[in-house]
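May I ask for whichever protein you like with its backbone structure tokens?
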Amino acid sequence: MNIERFFPRMLVAAGLLVLLGTFRVTGEPAAPPAPGPETRPVAAGASFNGEPFAYTLQLRHTNTRHRIYDLTYPSPLKTDVANNNTVPAEYYVPINLKDGEPRRPAVVILHILNGNYELERMLCTILAESGMPAILFKLPYYDERSPVAGRNVLIRDPVLFTACMKQAVLDVRRTVDVLADRPEVDPGRIGVAGISLGAIMAGSACGAEPRLQRAALILGGGDLRRIVNEARETRTLRENLAQLPAGQRQAAEAAIDQADPLTHAAALRRLAGEGRLLMVNAAEDEVIPRDCTNRLAAAAGMQDQVVWIKGVGHYTALAGLPEILRNTVAFFARDLPPGITAPPAPSPAKEQPPMLALTAFLQQMTALLTQPPRPGRCHYLDLQADLTLKDGKTTPYRLTFVRGTNGQFSLTASPVPEAGTLAIGCGDYPWLLAKNGRLFAGRQALDPAVTVANFMDPQHLLRLQLLAGAAMALALAPDVFAQYVQVTDEPGTPGERVLGITLTHKKAKGTGRLHFRRDTLTPTTLSFTGEGVSGTVTFRMWSLNAVSSPELYHEPGSASVQEVPQQDLLRMFAAAFNFLMEKAQ
């Protein structure tokens, strides 16, 4: 077997396996009913605009480290859409609050344009479990607040979009009113954090709300008009903006400028000067240009302090999610009073023996390839492999694979023999990026009963299924393979676990070292030597049921797009699978 050819081809072929079959996913058990709601009035003198209001608080969920409350309160801006005038929010509170202790800092979280709230809920949870209350509210015209036509009307109606941005800032101010009223919150230590669109709105809110004393802008930037004019996500918005009468267009553009964080640079400079502004950005962001981030950082006087997540773009920044969360939580935790600690984490189970730790890894690998994620989630794999052959030549390989539900996926691999870079996927429709840069888009529908499996070589498909079955068998019955695989614990750095692996089968001999993060058993690197080949695999991202976004499966930009029947693309996918399986023999 030629390892140099086998490795990249088998990775790509395994990725193509996701196009097969469907699996049943069971839901989580229902939570017990929560106590009834509590309504609290806020006096006129305690609101930013001098108007009294009341908010309603109801417990939704309690676990060992935090509670979640449903909050509702009136928006300061009344619109023609009646349901948009009530702000729905989720309030996350540490479980270990005690009477008589110092009040705690709190954080307002603003969500992304897509509005699936997964990232923001994750951030709220980690903040609460680190000792800080956090609140996520839904921006104007989202979900319960949307008009009959749905929230997508925002992108189609530039006037409504700009009105939404104005109302969002006012809603931030009202949310600060609510937090300042809470007995567990220190009203002098309220911060704001946002991701993507949320980061832009957070920067704008800092200029309007002087009580915001700390801000984390994640994947954000300045020059909002340029972002609107260039981002793929705002194409419909800018096309409709261009069609407005001159007077309306100028008013809309002025409203966009007012929401631009650059307009509020003085407030951001104040925060930055006190060490209370954090900017975390993707080094290869394709939505928020790096120039826009640099402009905002320079205006805030912190151009040398931006935290850049290397090697990722706006949507692949999920690969840097652990680092983003750690940085953000540590940033807000600086305001925790002395003596206040995070709720205790559950006691970890006894560490698995070495062989079981290896089989757990194999179970994850098999699940990533053969089992779909939970609804609204994705499996995400991003790795680099550097292989060295007998001649001493080292070749780097790179593979990124994202698998969603309902047939959504994205697969990029390079170098692939005779293809260079292979990029295929399926979001709203299947697509393939050819070697010459031409994008084939399968926008012409076909019979839903026809799948890529119809065009795959049955023998190749059987071989791949056998490999997956072998991995599952090893995971289920490791003792059967103990005579061929010896696994031991080896010394490692603090915070990691290292498994030493020795293969003694007559057809596969070699040694390896598999490094994990000890707290999560997430693989980080695998180094190996055997039969004249050595190498290192770096797991840049390895996550099952991670936060998903529809943009992860979208086709890349291309100057040359050709629409083709979906069946033609499925034939191309199958041809690539058959070719790779033949060459891997």
